[in-house]
Write the structure tokens for this entry.
Amino acid sequence: PRGGGKRVPVTACCFSPNGDMIAGAGRMGSVQIWERKQQRVGPRAKKKVYTAHEPQTETSCVAFASDNRALASRGGDGTLKLWDVRKFKKPVVEWKQDLPNDYPTSDVAFSPKGDLIICGTTSKAPDDKKAGRGGELVFFSRKTRKEVQRVRICSASVVRVIWNAKLNQIFCGCSDGATRVLYDPELSRNGALLCVKKKAKRKSAMDFSTFLHIKNPNALPLFAETQNPKRIRQKKRADPVASKKPMEPLKGEGTGGRVGLHNLTTHLMQCMAKKNLRNEDPREALLAWDEKAKADPLFFGNAYKETQPEQIYEEDKDEDEDEESEQIKELKKKISSTPMGADPEAHRKDWR
């Protein structure tokens, strides 16, 4: 809404019961009404009062009556005003006696028939003369335009107020977080009456609890012994976790080029590392698995057992055959080294 030619934040808004009007309140104390049937639709309201409440105060609530003819506004200046929608220029009546409002969400509501207006009040300050009454619920008559009754609700402030038409009960939301309900035993229906009509539960000995909290004063930080800051630093320095000390390098004697075989890491690495295969005979390593492969064939099953080729190994030569082969080699060298024209019968004896 606009207030004095400027746009101001909206502090309260509501629809009329028939849905033809929207009422809004601004921070500058203005109250404006927009109609659904107005010819020009825009941000400017058809009915407006810029000085409805004091400027720089938050109008906490606006509410229409059930007949769509009256509008009530709860101001942050501690006033409650009743407006006639048909002559929206001046308030019909203004109530401002002992109606403090310190909450930006304080409500105002009409009764289901529209003949009564209710609103809550803020609890008085301790230095006030009338302090001690706490939050109150005030009733005003729309017909006589006078205050009808004040009902003390609690020591806290009464902020939210709702008068339910079906239940005919008044719900008050207070600043202490609790909700109070006002009802009539004869005129109200359901709601709080469902709880009131129930009988109180009988107390049993089993409901009594003997568990009590044991508080040790010496365990509280307030009674802890104060230590010297230097000792606290030295204690943290000695603690490797608190000081975030890095891991020290490996120290000590070792074997196989490894140092510090006394810790867990090196022990695990030694168990997980592969063995040195430099001095191992590969033929002996393969033959060691020969019997296991025959007993439990891993790669070739019984289907290939009969079709496997026969293994033929090279036979070992005798030492005499090796010696004869050497003599033949020497004899061939002698024959090849004989000069041209020599008698070939000279080496025939050796050949035989």
User: Anything to note?
Assistant: The radius of gyration is 54 Å. The mean pLDDT is 78. The first helix runs from residue 192 to 196.
